[in-house]
Amino acid sequence: MIATPIATPSEDPDGGNRALVFIRDVTERRSRELQLLQAEKMSSIGVLAAGVAHEINNPMTSVAGYAEALQRRFREDPSLAGDQRLLDFPNYLEIIVREVYRCKGIIDSLQSFSRKSDGVFGRVDLNVIMGEVLELVRHQGRDKNITLRENLSVSLPLVQGDASALRQVFLNLILNALQAIDEAGTVIIETAVDGSWIVARVIDSGAGIAPEMLDQIWTPFFTTKTVGQGQGLGLAVTYDIVEKHQGTITVRSKVGEGTEFVVKLPKCQDK
Prior knowledge:
Structural class: alpha+beta
Oligomer: single chain
Order of helices and strands: EEHHHEHEEHEEHHEE
Low-confidence stretches: 227-232
Number of strands: 9
């Protein structure tokens, strides 16, 4: 709003004070600025993540290679397997190889997030997206004694979408669910088919959202989190991405009982 005073004309000295007021709705412009800010932020994080993932991947490959070489030596040389001093070694090596490949899976998920979105829509498996997100956030659940429960539909049809953008959607929702729980609790991630829609649910047993705040959670910079936990951008960006995918996102919540976010996306039409 811009208000400019207008001088009283000389021919009407008793006309009183007047002003010219311009009022402009900047909601759309502010929304675009928000998206640019978030895109720049995610781009910076992506560059950092790609560098870290690359540097960790190389030593992990060496560890896996040498551990597998020792496993082959045990298989090929029976005398080693019969040595009482080495009885536990095959089990140790199996654990090393398994955990290294689990780390490599997490690194691959991190690299998927680091790739810039080109805005091109393709056929996307939401179960794969969920798996990549869960690899990155699972440790947060363990740290807070939160159980992450997956109920993913088998043979889920594909959706038409931008994989990078959809990763961001479900990363935002699952992180919000984890942050909504102060102590031990449960976060449930579900996928299902409902007619022509693919439905994804993120359900938490957290504190819930007060009814008077439910209509405001999609507003940019509105947040119920404590200072330092968030800027109130995640759900606004999430809503925008889901709309661009011609989908819907709804929320149900009850104070003290938790919150449920439901994302519906149109499934790919069979050719």
